[in-house]
Design a protein that fits this description.
Helix content is 82%, strand content 0%. By secondary structure, it is an all-alpha fold. It has a single domain, classed as Growth Hormone, Chain: A.
Amino acid sequence: MAAAPISTALGSPLSAALLEMDGVMGLHGWQWMFVLEAIPALILGVVVFFYVTDRPEKAKWLKEDERDWLVGVMNEETARRSSSGAKHGIISGLTNPRVLALSLIYFGTSAGLYTLGIWAPQIIKQLGVSSMTVGLLNAIPPTVSVVAMVLWSRHSDRTGERTWHVVLACVAAAIGLAVAAVSNSVVGLIASLTLVNIGISCAKPPLWTMPTMFLSGAAAATGIATINSIGNLGGFAGPVMIGWVKDKTGSYAGGLYFVAGLLLLSAVVTLLLARSQKSTVTPGRAAAH
């Protein structure tokens, strides 16, 4: 989960430096950036294909006792979910209403994430700073968010609470976007973008623990794939809306408010999902007593 903000923190200054290579060997700076930053991805793609396995028992890079422990834990989790009525079939993972609700929640967080990735540098740039300064300033929010994400996730694991850890993070990100829309100073803008980064980064780890609370096996695989597929459409909708509003109004404000609204919707849906789960579980417990 920390890979996304870490890549931004490292990539922003690097990209800014590569843009300064404009004219070298007859290529534009952006062409150098595309070529040089694509090489590690190509190499890692080949490494992953040959090195990473589908199942832990096939992972030769794990020690035997580590493989046995991991397989045992996964089998225990599967058995526990089976006894609690967790769904297993592929169709269950595609049609479960809670999967669709989680897809909508992830839609909002993806809109916020890709808004940062695509538009944050441009929003900073409009304050009149150089490209290199943009790269350095844009690295600050994700750097802070990595620390916040680790602490927030540990607190969620320690308390076993997921819902409010998602809700509060989404609300924080929405507030950050709203403040960024009206910020006209470098300090104010970076502070608000930092809040957005923290909110989005902190929302994702507890959010991704939710599908396996009621799905297992093939249902979990298809459910997670469904959430990821539908949710990532937010990465298209949010940035496109910001660009469209910018063209129509000359300002980023309206688009940022739109994405903030999506994040608030994610928070509301998370609360409704938690409430529906409680109403489903309670009658069963009452009958048992």
